[in-house]
Each structure stands twice: as C-alpha cells, then as structure tokens.
Amino acid sequence: MAEVNRYPRPQFERSEWLCLNGAWNFRFEQEDWQTIQVPFAYQSRLSGIDTNRPCDHVSYRRTFAVPAAWRGQSVRMNFGAVDYACEVYVNGRHVGGHVGGNIGFSLDITCALTWNTEDVRVEVFDPWQDETIPRGKQYWLPDPDSIWYKRTTGIWQSVWLEPVHPRHIDSLRFTPDIDKGSVEIAYACPGATGCQLELNLSLHGQLLHSLSTTLQEETGRVSVDLFSGHIFRSNFHHAGWCWSPESPTLFDVEARLVSNSETLDQVRSYFGMRKIETREGKVYLNNKPYYQKLVLDQGYWPDSLMTPPDDEGLRRDIEMAKAMGFNGCRKHQKAEDPRFLYWADRLGYLVWGEIGSCISFSPDSVRRLMSEWGEAVMRDYNHPCIVAWVPINESWGVPEIARNPQHQALAQALYHLCKALDPTRLVVGNDGWEMTVSDICAIHNYTHGEPQDKQAHAAFEEGLRTQDSLLRNMPANRPIYANGFAYDGAPILLTEFGGISLQNSTEHAWGYTQVAGEETFVQEYRRILEAIGRSQALFGFCYTQLSDVEQETNGLLTYDRRYKIAPQIIRAINDQVKGW
Predict the structure, then answer these.
(1) DSSP for 319-376?
(2) Domains of the chain in sequence order
C-alpha cells in the first residue's frame, strides 16, 4: 500500500507522521541496485521487480528528510513488517533491528540524524529453505505448488516516521467488561511521572466521559464506568452499545499527555464493548449464543501477494464475504495488516487470528514461534473483531504431537502464553485434529465426496450428526485429540471443509473437490451446508475458502476478487444454517 494518507497503525494514531512508502533502491546480495516499490515484496508485480528468484540476503536503501519542526523530539522509524530478520542503518549508523516476519517494530533514530538529507539502509536475511522459521504458506521449494504459495521476502508492510516527545504515551490497552458497563484502560507513559493523562471517550461523536489523572508511575490503569449518570444504564445491553457483526459500535478515544498546560503527546484510538466465552457446548457473544459462519481467508492478492494492493482491497474483502452471509473469517497462516483489523472492527466482522506456522520442530522453531506469538497478541489486543487465537494449525511444526510429550508441551505452552497475555479471548490449541488443551474443538473434514459419490455423502453427513460421531472422526487419518487428552465439553466447530473448485483451463489448478459448472457448484455447496445445518452438535463452521490463491482454485472468489457464484445465492444457503 503506497498510500500516504492512511495511517498504518489505526489503533494508536498520531496526527504527525511521514510515509516512506514508494521508490527505494534494492539489490540482491551484492549485485547492482535497482528500484523497488515499498511495501511490495520483490516477488510481486507491484514491486516493479516481479521475480520468484530465491535469495537469502537483500538490501534496501533510500534518502529522506525529517521535517525541521520535529527538532527537539525523538524521531521514530516504524516498520509494519519485514520478513524475516533485518538490521537498520541510518547515515551509516546502526540504529537497531528485528527478528520475525509477522509483526512490525519501531526504532528511535534520533541519534543518527543530520537534519539534512538522511540515508537509511535495511539489510534483510530471509533464509528461504529454513523450515524452523514461522512462514505459514510461503513455500520452501522454488516454485509454488498445491496449498503452498510464493514467498515474501523483505519489507511487506508500510514504513513511516513520526515525532515522539521524550515523555510520551507508549501504549494504551483496553479491556471491556460488558457486565459492569466499564472499560479498564492500562497505559504506559515513559518518563511521564507527574504529568497528566487526559482521556476523552466518545460515542457516535458525542463526548461520553472525560477524565484526567496525575501519573504517579510510568505505568498504571484506570477503570471507567462508561454509563454512570446516563439514563440508558439499566438498558445498556439493548441500547446498541455492544460490539457485534450486526452492530459494530465503537467508542472513540482521544488521549493527551499534558505537563504545565503543554500537550506533550496526543493519540487517537478506539475500543469495542465485546465479550466472548464458551458455555454448555456453545460460543457466547455478549452473553448470547452466537453461531459463527466463518470463511478461511489466506490474505493473498495476485499482484501484491501478502501485501494488500490498497486499503480498499482490505475493506472490499470483508464486504464481499459479508454479502455472502459470512459473519467472520479465520485469517489463515498470516498475521494480517492492522488496517484489515481496523476495517473488521468498523464493518463488524469476526476474526480468528493466526500467524504463520513453522514446518519443522526444533528448539529454534519453538523459540521463534513463542516470540512472534507474544508480539502478535500484544499488537492486536485492542481489536474487538478478534475473538480467537489459533497458535497451531493441523499439527504444523509439531508433527509428532499425537504421542510426543515434547510436541504436546509446545501446543500447551502456546495456549497458555495466549491466555497469560490475553485472558479475554478463546484459544484454539491445534486447529484441525490432535488437540491438547483448547477452548474450541476445531475439526477439519474434507471427506464430503465428489458430486456422484453417494456413499461418501452419507458417511459425511452421518459423521457430523452427533457429538459422538464427530469425535470418532479421523480426518486425514488423525485422531481429534492427542494421546492423553480428551473432549471436555468445548463447543465443536467444523473449521475447515469444502474447498470446491470450479473446473477451468488454469494449468496446475488444484482444489479439494473439482466440479463442472456453476449449477453443480451450488448443488454441492448446498448439500454440504445442509448437512452441517442438520448436525445436532456443531456450533459453527469455517468454509474453505474466500478466494483462489495462485494454483489453488477453490475460492468462492477468483484471485482478482470476482464472485464465481452470485453472492445472494451463497448467502441464502448460509442463512439456512441456524445451529442447534
């Protein structure tokens, strides 16, 4: 996204900033420099380079000027994400680096500035065949195949500068409590002891609550009774003030750090009053049973791969999915750009959050995965759209989890890491099968058969009918629970199925089921969804998948985001699934 008017971090927005997206110098290894368009990876067409050439080391370089008005403040250089490890130099001086391609980072570059023409160089290390790096769907072989896609190397999200006062607001963390009608706001304000933190909370443009607190320490928290003195308090839950896909109400927040009447820092944010939990085999949203109708979303685009082509592309994906009757997505094997989460918050769209998995198990993969998962949960904590975390998918990175205690320990550790950092959301221990500890029993099943395979049709429906039949399933010949673990009453959701591919002339096209013609596609989609709707135990689903990706042609949309089937047809089928 080369847009200069869309702030890249919408949950924590400052008014002064400078976008560094656009033309940079780029080179492979020690070759000659060429031009690349940041933030698009060199493997994508929009980068201007467009080659799938394997390369472990690449370099970026450009010049920039810092506004003179920023003198006296700290200057931060922010990177949305760089895959995989990088070191950053400003005017030849090392200012920091980061390891991990899923989540971004921020560097204070003030000490290296000349306040003239500045030079930044980014050295990237991305060992493309290393299976212990959390890379998700990026293939470790030269060319994409089946469910594996082109790699993303280097800068793949926005780069920007912003001035920050030495005493500033470093973070705000919102924890809503819909039962009390309150929100806890945790803050971190380095060096700001003795300053006033002013918070203004608004709803629909009207100031709802204003408070000012003198900071006794750099970190702390305040609890705000949102509806104290308001006539709607007793009817709060019915006043449209809770966040849901049907009513995505958001509270806007303006935070100011003040000293002696001088504003040192000011940020804008928002939160939603939303509660997610499980009880009696069901998922509850805001204290009411809520049947999730999700779609698997890989987050790839034909011209830009993992980077959205523009901000509207993110919004359009959500709008197209909602038009087909889905109320959310499982964002698969990718920590999505924060602006996607912003649109999901604004438009009302549930998100199950993931990052890329490792393929192999080793001490290095364990260390890397734990580190990046911690960063992901901390970055995205405030987004009300996120209702679940999915640390492991289909035993990727833990191939022996069925019986190996060491592999099982990693799955449990990731579950508890997510819970320790964020006790407000559900955590899916190993989506698909061979689960250990998990808030949801998440089952994958693609055995619904080809259009004429009546025996497979009957077996698929019978396998979904009851709790016992679901738990006896052996998807991919793997048990639902790992050895030593058993079902504990969690809600059961079918979190991957479908994958119906319309036959076409695309070379090497791949899908779980091939059908010829739109009419047959609709018949098959209806048959499978009706079987899910008749289940006496399922309480939600996630269909594979939103769009085609490269050679994988089993999307409801084409790779360039055109409906294959009229959305109202898919919606009418989805709407018939009510849950038990």
Answers:
(1) HHHHHTT--EEEETTS---HHHHHHHHHHT-EEEE--PPPSS-SHHHHHHHHHHHHHH
(2) 18-164 (2.60.120.260), 171-271 (2.60.40.10), 276-575 (3.20.20.80)
